[in-house]
Each structure stands twice: as structure tokens, then as C-alpha cells.
């Protein structure tokens, strides 16, 4: 089970990165095994770039903040991305309610 401190730090870091890169932050859920983020990405950034920044910076900042994280890769290699269209409200609600689904 992920540590509450680590979850809180990840939440703070993701929001800080979104402000820094001028991404729109809509919702998140940080579970024990995976994370859901709902962010708006400006056209000047590729999805791969944003995911790389989110994973890379959060890993580096978290490792500096705590000794609980072992050396080596913090994040898995993969990620899943989907675009949001007419179901924007449903997507936001889904991400925000992940704790009720065991995610």
C-alpha cells in the first residue's frame, strides 16, 4: 500500500508541474497501484512530452524529499491516454471517484 505521505506529495507535485507548464488540472486519483490524472494539454506540447515531464519530475522531486523511495525507476514504462470529448463531465467524475472503485 502506498504511503499517505507519498500520495500527498505526488498530488502536490502534479499540481505544481501543471502550474509550471500551464496545463489545466481538472482531477486526479492517486491509488495504491496506479494513478489517474485528468489534465488539459496545450497544443504546443505533445502527450509524450507531458507524460515524460510528469513522470520524470515527480520521481526526481519525490526521491529528493524522502528516503523511502529506492534508487532506480519509480514509474513503470507505460501509460494510457485518452482524449475527452462530449463526456468531459463523466470523465472528471470517474477520476474523482476512483477511491470508491478500489483503484
Layout of SSEs?
Blueprint: H1 4-21, E1 24-30, E2 35-40, H2 47-65, H3 88-96
Antiparallel strand pairs: 1-2
What does this structure look like?
A two-stranded antiparallel sheet has the order 1-2. A hairpin with a 4-residue loop joins strand 1 (24-30) and strand 2 (35-40). The protein has 103 residues and is α+β, with helices and mostly antiparallel strands. The protein has one domain (4-101): Transposase IS200-like (Alpha-Beta Plaits), CATH 3.30.70.1290. It is built from 3 helices and 2 strands, in the order αββαα. Helix 1 packs across helix 2. The radius of gyration is 14 Å and the shape is globular.
Kindly summarize this structure in a few lines.
This protein is of the alpha+beta class.
Features:
single chain; 103 residues; alpha+beta; Alpha-Beta Plaits; two-stranded antiparallel ribbon; 3 helices; 2 strands; globular
Overall structural class, as computed from helix and strand content, comes to: alpha+beta
Q: Average pLDDT, to the nearest integer?
A: 85
| Lateral strand order in the biggest sheet | 1-2
Helix share, percent: 40-55%
Q: Summarize the biggest pleated sheet.
A: 2 strands, antiparallel
CATH topology: Alpha-Beta Plaits
Number of strands: 2
Report the total helices. 3
| Spatial extent as radius of gyration | 14 Å
Order of helices and strands: HEEHH
Shape: globular
